[in-house]
Design goal:
- A five-stranded parallel sheet has the order 1-5-4-2-3, sandwiched between helices.
- The protein has one domain: 3-Layer(aba) Sandwich (Leucine Aminopeptidase, subunit E, domain 1), CATH 3.40.220.10.
- The protein starts with a helix and ends with a helix.
- The chain is built from six helices and five strands.
- Helix 4 (78-97) crosses helix 5 (117-134).
- 44% of the residues lie in helices and 15% in strands.
- By secondary structure, it is an alpha/beta fold.
- It is globular.
C-alpha cells in the first residue's frame, strides 16, 4: 500500500496557482477574504471576481478548497495536531467526493501561523497515508505538496 501511495506523491517548489491539478488547497484565513502567502497568490491569480464571490457568499464555494489551519501561540497541542490533520483529511474527502483526480497542498499553518515545519510535514504525510488506507478505492492519483522555499522542500 505505501509504495502505491509514494507513486502518487510529489513535492515541488513554486507557484501553486500554476500547477496542472484539479484542486488547489488554499491555506486561508477564517474570513476567506484574501491575505498573504498562498491565499494572496490565489486571489491575485483569480482576479477580483474571487474576492467579490467570497464577499457575496460570506465565504467562498469555488473549485479551490479553502482550509484554515491552527495558529500556534506557544507550543503545539494535541488539538492543534488534530486540526491540522483535519485540514488534509477534509480536503482529500472533498476531492474524492467530487471524483477529482489530483490535488495540490501548500504547507498549511507553517508560515505566519507558526506550526513547526517538520511536525506539520509528518502530520500531512501520516494523514494522507491513513486516508488512503480508509479510501483504497479513491480515484485520486496525484497529490502535490507545493512548497514556497528551499527550507520547506527539505
Amino acid at each position: 500500500m505505501m509504495s502505491s501511495i509514494r507513486n502518487k506523491l510529489l513535492v515541488t517548489k513554486g507557484d501553486i496557482t500554476k500547477l496542472a491539478v484539479d484542486v488547489i488547497v488554499n491555506a486561508a484565513n477564517s474570513s476567506l477574504l484574501g491575505g498573504g502567502g498562498v491565499d494572496g497568490a490565489i486571489h491575485a491569480a483569480a482576479g477580483p471576481e474571487l474576492l467579490e464571490e467570497c464577499k457575496r457568499l460570506n465565504g467562498c464555494k469555488t473549485a479551490v478548497i479553502h482550509t484554515v489551519g491552527p495558529i500556534i501561540n506557544l507550543e503545539v497541542s494535541d488539538s492543534d495536531k488534530q486540526l491540522l490533520s483535519n485540514c488534509y483529511k477534509n480536503s482529500m474527502d472533498l476531492t474524492h467526493k467530487n471524483k477529482l483526480k489530483s490535488i495540490a497542498f501548500p504547507c498549511i499553518s507553517t508560515g505566519i501561523y507558526h506550526f513547526p515545519k517538520d511536525e506539520a510535514c509528518q502530520i500531512a504525510l501520516t494523514t494522507i497515508k491513513n486516508w488512503f488506507k480508509e479510501n483504497g478505492d479513491s480515484s485520486i492519483d496525484k497529490i502535490i505538496f507545493c512548497v514556497f522555499n528551499e527550507q520547506d522542500e527539505d
